[in-house]
Write a structure and sequence with these properties.
The protein is mostly beta strands. It is built from no helices and eleven strands. It starts with a strand and ends with a strand.
Length: 118
Amino acid sequence: QVQLVESGGGLVQAGGSLRLSCAASGRTFRNYVMGWFRQAPGKEREFVASISWSGGETYYLDSVKGRFTISADNAKKTVYLQMNSLKPEDTAVYYCHALLRTRPYDSWGQGTQVTVSS
């Protein structure tokens, strides 16, 4: 079982930056892929970025490439999403996600609100 707690959301002006954190609890994360998703009002939840905890492979939504960076600190069991050059269309609730690669299991955090004003 993995429990995820996000933090770092807030209100920022367009062009600004925020760093989201996702603290994970559990015994081992070697077989997990960690990700960030977001859901804007009236829209479906969408994938933003992911990182393999063991190998560090990263993937991004096209619209955030070059602006967002996902990273993981194994010692702190924390995954980060550095968001730069934020745009109003990045406004959403951001969720941390853990996907186990060896069997059907995943976990979601409670979400953190990111609001970008124009």
